[in-house]
Amino acid sequence: MKSIIGTFLFVLALTSLALAVQISGTLECGKPDPQYSIPVGDDHPGHAVQIEQYKCTWTKPMEIGGVATKDGSSVESGEKLGTTIHASGFHTTNMANNDLIFVTYKGTIVIKDDKPVTSKGTWSFVGGKGKFLKIKGNGTFDGTPTPDGGVSFAVKGRYTLP
Question: Looking at residue 9, what is its pLDDT?
Answer without folding.
Answer: 43
